[in-house]
Amino acid sequence: MTVVARLEEGALHPEQELGALLERAKGDGAVVSFTGLVRATSKGGQIVDRLILEHHPSLTQQSLEDIAKEAAAKFDVSHVLVVHRRGDVMAGELIVFAGAAALHRRSAFEAADYLMDRLKTEAVFWKREVGPQGSNWIEPTEADYTDRERWS
Amino acid sequence: MKVVFYGRLAEEIGPEIEVSVLPSCSVADVREMIAAEHPDVAGLLRNRRVLSVVGERMVRDDYRLVAADTLEFLPPVSGG
Question: What is the pTM of this model?
Answer without folding.
Answer: 0.95
